[in-house]
Amino acid sequence: MLPSTLARAALSARGPVSERLLAALSESTETGGSGLAGFEALAARALGRVPDILVDEDLQLTLFLLYRLHYDGVVPGDDEWEWHPALLAARVVLERGFEAALRASAPQPPIPAATRDDVARALFTLTGHEHNPGLALYVARAATGQQAVEFLVHRSVYALREADPYAWGIPRLAGRSKSALIEILAGEYGGGRVERMHSVLFADALRAAGLEGDYVASVDAVPAVTLASVNAISMFGLNRRLRGALVGHLAAFEMTSAIPSRLYSDGFQRLGFDDSVARYFDVHVEAGFAREQSACRALAGSLAEDDPEAVGDIMFGASVFLTLDDRQSAHLLGSWAGGYPPLRAERSSR
């Protein structure tokens, strides 16, 4: 079983930057703002000292919190924090470092011609040759029940708010690519039926697996490598200049979801979990095969034809998805192989 610490309802800081931020967010903007004097400089100094922001616990949590202020709220508090100048300034500093690290670590694939067919072909080549479903195979064939639950906790930071970061792309696109994105997201949001929303299906799966589905508790439990995978989508979605990367990221996500989802479903069925756990993954098997052409041609290909300068970022976003997904998979598989827990909450309890 997972430790009781997973049920905490408050986030804990992971270093001086997230500590300063959480302290401010616990108050109103009027009273907490004074505690942010020099916050941008603090973030810049921390960024200059870390060897790799992609796995830095303090800065990834800080970025996550700064992004989540634009969503439905992870930390209860004053909504005025969303546009606080000190927080926006610090976010820009960390975001630049994060983007630079992603561009340095994600291999840049060849840039195709700006046509639907060429972009689709390039994306199929990239996702077919580069993506290794090793984690899904392990869950299907060898994972223990405890490991399967740990996998769900890692997945929950995205899946409990599934598709929300991609939705920022709607007002940033136009014409055919906007229409394609809306069509894809409509399925993610259940086609207008709340019980079919993928986030709701995942919450049902968590409860069936013995977890409460507490989003804050999940965030507190997972390491930086998992937060980075979610932060990348928020960064792409909240910056219009990176709309191509958002589209490429979503295309790669859709093009690589069906087969792993089938394997995850097999694994949870093998382990005897309730059918509602497998159901979440079964929905993604059906949706993945149906959407991969729409994602690579109607979405990414149309954007490329309408905005040829976006092609490089489309391929960059796809590469980022594969790179961070592989890093997260390596963390889980390496933890299990080495006999150490992949969740922060578990480590702190041992």
Task: Tell me what the structure shows.
The two termini are 13 Å apart. The protein contains 18 helices and no strands. 48% of the residues are buried. The protein has 350 residues and is mainly α. The protein is 68% helix and 0% strand. Helix 6 crosses helix 16 (275-306). Residues 1-8 and 346-350 have low confidence and may be disordered. The chain has helices spanning 16-25, 29-32, 39-49, 57-68, 85-105, 116-130, 134-141, 145-159, 164-167, 175-188, 198-208, 215-221, 224-238, 243-255, 258-270, 275-306, 311-338, 344-348.
Count of helical stretches: 18
| Proportion of helical residues | 55-70%
What is the string of helix and strand elements? Answer: HHHHHHHHHHHHHHHHHH
Sheet/helix structural class: mainly alpha
The unreliable regions are 1-8, 346-350
* Cα end-to-end separation: 13 Å
The fraction of residues assigned to DSSP E strands is under 5%
For the CA atoms, what is the radius of gyration?
Answer: 20 Å
Tell me, rounded to a whole number, the average pLDDT.
92
Tell me the major beta sheet: none
Taken from the alpha-carbon principal axes, the silhouette is: globular
Number of strands: 0
Outline the fold blueprint:
Elements: H1 16-25, H2 29-32, H3 39-49, H4 57-68, H5 85-105, H6 116-130, H7 134-141, H8 145-159, H9 164-167, H10 175-188, H11 198-208, H12 215-221, H13 224-238, H14 243-255, H15 258-270, H16 275-306, H17 311-338, H18 344-348
Helix pairs in contact: 1-3, 1-4, 3-5, 4-5, 4-13, 6-16, 6-17, 7-15, 8-11, 8-12, 10-16, 11-16, 13-17, 14-16, 14-17, 15-16
